[in-house]
Amino acid sequence: MEYYVAGWDGGGTKTAMQIRNLKGEVILSAHAGGLNFNSQSKEELKQTIHTLVTHMSKLQGGLEACKMLCVSTAGISNPEAFNFLKGTIKDTGLTCEMKFVGDHEGALYGALGKADGMVLISGTGSICFGKNLEGRTSRTGGWGHIIDDEGSGYAIGRDILSAAVKSYDRRTPKSMLYDLVLEKIGGKSVEDIIQYTYNTAIGKKDIASFAPLLIEAISQEDQQGIMIGNNAAMELVKLVIPVAHELNLNEGELALTGGILTHYKAIREKVVCQLLQKLPKLKIKEAMYDSVTGAALMALEQVKKGSVR
After folding, report:
1. What are the pLDDT digits (tens) for 67-104?
2. How does DSSP classify residue 96?
3. Alpha-carbon distance 19 to 27, whole Å?
4. Which of 22, 49, 51, 173 is 20 to 30 A from 264, alpha carbon to alpha carbon?
5. What is the Cα 159 distance to its own chain's centre?
């Protein structure tokens, strides 16, 4: 029988799964629905778990060949979420050892290929998470878009909409962001922007979808766009400093990941520059792998340590 380990990376709309044999080779990758206890119904969570476990059951050796499952998902610190997910997985017949971690911990292991160091994530939301060699952890940010998520795609999108109406009001110098926003929503007036923004069907991801307008604005040297980009970079730097200090990782490794830090060159360069001014011995790395790879590698590490029979 060829034994294997499994890593699940659960998001709000999609859960990725990666299966590796004990040699570390990927033997299966698959996807299912969301696995966030805070944003999915229990029936939706059950369906996601059923889909993933069904994929595993079709592998050589079936579910009995699984030595370890590592689930990386948001909200797992909530005891109700932990108990529900673990209980539902066990109800499928999967009896292997299980490890549950926050999605930021899976992201750290995937980004650096190991458990220690720091990861700064800026996608729709934003968070910095770190873990040192003593096993102590620290995090900043990630408290949700209503009161936090500064430097994220959501925050940038919100700031773009704000800049558009302020430009219309002449409270700020004229900005091309006003016209770019109207073009994106197919609108003709400021009232169309307001109607779109406050439509009850518009959510966090819809607001974050305006963030790409910043790239064009910065390339055209639009001053409001430049200010938004600089502010986002500054807020992301603020996330890293306390984590580095608390864990004595001022000379440690930091990976930058997420859509904003990956695709927004101006913001990434500003973040790197400001971080190295404040922490000149910090080692800033390109992310090695994604979060689902991190979850699978964490499971494999547990087996290789001999902590799983």
Report:
1. 999 999 988 888 999 999 999 999 999 999 999 999 99
2. S
3. 6
4. 173
5. 20
For residues 33 and 52, give the distance between their C-alpha atoms in angstroms, rounded to a whole number.
9
Q: Quote the pLDDT of residue 182.
A: 98
Instruction: Provide the pLDDT confidence category of residue 308 given band limits of 50, 70 and 90.
Output: low
For residues 151 and 233, the answer to whether their CB atoms sit within 8 Å is yes
CB of 178 within 8 A of CB of 217? no
CA nearest to 152, candidates 257, 291, 26: 257
The predicted model scores a pTM of: 0.90
Helix, strand, coil abundance in the chain, percent, nearest 5: 45, 20, 35
pLDDT tens-digit readout, 266-304: 999 999 999 999 999 999 999 999 999 999 999 999 999
* Contact between residue 161 and residue 197 where contact means Cβ atoms under 8 Å apart: yes
Cα–Cα distance measured from residue 236 to residue 239, given in angstroms and rounded to the nearest whole number: 5
